[in-house]
Amino acid sequence: xxxxxxxxxxxxxxxxxxxxxxxxxxxxxxxxxxxxxxxxxxxxxxxxxxxxxxxxxxxxxxxxxxxxxxxxxxxxxxxxxxxxxxxxxxxxxxxxxxxxxxxxxxxxxxxxxxxxxxxxxxxxxxxxxxxxxxxxxxxxxxxxxxxxxxxxxxxxxxxxxxxxxxxxxxxxxxxxxxxxxxxxxxxxxxxxxxxxxxxxxxxxxxxxxxxxxxxxxxxxxxxxxxxxxxxxxxxxxxxxxxxxxxxxxxxxxxxxxxxxxxxxxxxxxxxxxxxxxxxxxxxxxxxxxxxxxxxxxxxxxxxxxxxxxxxxxxxxxxxxxxxxxxxxxxxxxxxxxxxxxxxxxxxxxxxxxxxxxxxxxxxxxxxxxxxxxxxxxxxxxxxxxxxxxxxxxxxxxxxxxxxxxxxxxxxxxxxxxxxxxxxxxxxxxxxxxxxxxxxxxxxxxxxxxxxxxxxxxxxxxxxxxxxxxxxxxxxxxxxxxxxxxxxxxxxxxxxxxxxxxxxxxxxxx
Amino acid sequence: xxxxxxxxxxxxxxxxxxxxxxxxxxxxxxxxxxxxxxxxxxxxxxxxxxxxxxxxxxxxxxxxxxxxxxxxxxxxxxxxxxxxxxxxxxxxxxxxxxxxxxxxxxxxxxxxxxxxxxxxxxxxxxxxxxxxxxxxxxxxxxxxxxxxxxxxxxxxxxxxxxxxxxxxxxxxxxxxxxxxxxx
Lengths: 509, 183
Fold this sequence. Notes:
The complex is a heterodimer.
Chain A: H1 2-59, H2 61-65, H3 69-77, E1 85-92, E2 97-102, E3 119-123, E4 126-135, E5 138-148, H4 151-201, H5 215-311, H6 318-349, E6 355-358, H7 359-373, E7 379-383, E8 388-391, H8 393-410, E9 417-426, E10 429-436, H9 468-478, E11 483-487, E12 493-498
Parallel strand pairs in A: 7-9
Antiparallel strand pairs in A: 1-2, 1-5, 3-4, 4-5, 6-8, 9-10, 10-12, 11-12
Helix pairs in contact in A: 1-4, 4-5, 5-6, 6-9, 7-8, 8-9
Chain B: H1 2-14, H2 16-26, H3 31-42, E1 46-47, E2 60-65, H4 68-78, E3 82-83, E4 86-92, E5 103-106, H5 112-121, E6 127-131, E7 142-147, E8 150-156, H6 157-162, E9 166-167, H7 169-173, E10 177-179
Parallel strand pairs in B: 2-4, 2-5, 5-6, 6-7, 8-10
Antiparallel strand pairs in B: 1-9, 3-4, 7-8
């Protein structure tokens, strides 16, 4: 709609321009005509009245010469024929009023006491004429005329005529300007229409029609050329857009293909994982039942060995007792081994119960147990306060028992044993560590450390089943975390582990 | 005193009408003076036959008989005046000699001398002016009469025509009465 408003304003401006020009021209013309006419009127009136005064004055010569006031008055009364003359006075040579005339209906005229010089004076609608009467080079007297003319009436009439003529002229000029506007604004309107079509339909094919050879015609040509240019560019743009769209579609289909392959892969992985888990649990069930079934004969061996020692203790010699003792120690070790294996498999099967766990308190309890079991040891233990995590308390307890137990065990031959339990913050990640200054180990074997039945030290050096760290790794893995270590032979070891920060993403609570 | 005189001078210079007014107050005008003035003014309204003047600039001769004071006033009045191209001359008539006279004023019409003058001026191109209500019957063409303290005059067209003269109708319009038929 905007172009039309703009066009209307062009039309309006043209209209106002024509109107103002016409009015100004008419007013100036009217005013100058009126001024000229009024000036002409005054001049001709002055001439006319002067002539009148001359004639009457001449007629009055005998009356003045022979002192005949009656004749003078009757001469003046001839002025009755001129309605515009209101009054007249005749002065004799001595300057006294000799005769006078006053138009009927007029108030008694107010004549000057003495006649003035020859003059015509205008005062509004009044004219006064004074004229000397001369005969044979002798001044016989003066004639004074007082007349009126309808100056204001004339001006009013004039203004009326000017207004009427102006109205007519305005009307004609408006008609002319309407025609002119049509010739000026129609081509503009055409352009506007085409421009609107282009904007609304994005169709660059229509062309404005050229009707005139003036500036507007040039404008139309320029507009059409611009349209052609834009049309060409738009086509090129469209072609490149189509090319782009085709490329995008290709890329999309390639992506879809990749996604499909990924899904296939995932499905296959899931299938294998399921199979693996099945096998794993079968294996665990098997080892559990084996461990469980192994305990009964072991208990029998242990029991009967004990029975031999107590019932036949007096009959046995030293050598016999030593063998029996060796059997007892072996069965105890085997029982421990079976217990650990059962624990390991139990840990794998246990459901995790997520809750807030105070690791600092847990570590303190574990260290107290260790101290009670081995009251002779002197170990400096420092446990950081307020280490809390979201985890399963039973599993974490087992993990800490193993880690702290290891530290306790491998510092057994160190002079000033020191164990530290703490936590590092590394960005979002919280790393819990257990550090000791015990025997340590060679980092070359670090990858073997967390496998089951892997032992780096001899049984006689540090007793153990070699299942503890495997258990710890399993616990950490089940919490979605990772475990690693740093150590050197004779310089102690440090175990680090993390737990999943967001346990909600990891199975049911 | 000096200031007043100065003002009066300014008024006189500024307004000629004021000057006339001053003259009017100067003297009481006598009947003789008026009659003298009328006498030479008649000259402007009379047409004489061509033979009455020898040349276009020949004077109009005004003869005065039996009225010395009128003759005196007239003499001072006509000095330097002309009517048309004619200068004015005053001639005192004592011996009945009327040759060359154009206007004749008979101041005392009831004397024998006056009667002779009336007779001798008959058929001559002379405008005979006299005074009195019976002036016309005594033989005058124009006769002064006093009406309402003003000097007027009667005209006898017959007498004028008898002497071969013509009077302007303008003069007749200001006459007190006109007798005789127009031709």
